[in-house]
Write a structure and sequence with these properties.
mainly beta, about 70 residues, metal-binding, FLYWCH-type domain-containing protein
């Protein structure tokens, strides 16, 4: 599994980088968190990650986009 990096945005919101894609929290319940690609709106990036529990273990990745972090085109 690739490295997963968690950090806070400038607005102090949780963010995650995995496999070159940057994610933000879209929805959260007591047991599950849905992370979506930060380029979801501007570049139609459909990458999504579900994490479960306090361990924040990546359970499922669905990615039909080819827009990694740092690609400005």
């Amino acid at each position: 599994m690739s490295e997963i990096v968690y950090f806070l945005s400038k607005r102090k919101l949780p963010m995650m980088v995995m496999k070159g894609y940057e994610y933000r929290i879209k929805r959260r319940t007591e047991t599950k968190t849905l992370w979506t690609c930060t380029k979801e709106d501007s570049r139609k990036c459909k990458a999504r990650v579900f994490t479960f529990g306090n361990m924040m273990h990546a359970k499922k990745i669905t990615n039909t986009s080819k827009i990694p972090v740092g690609n400005n085109s």
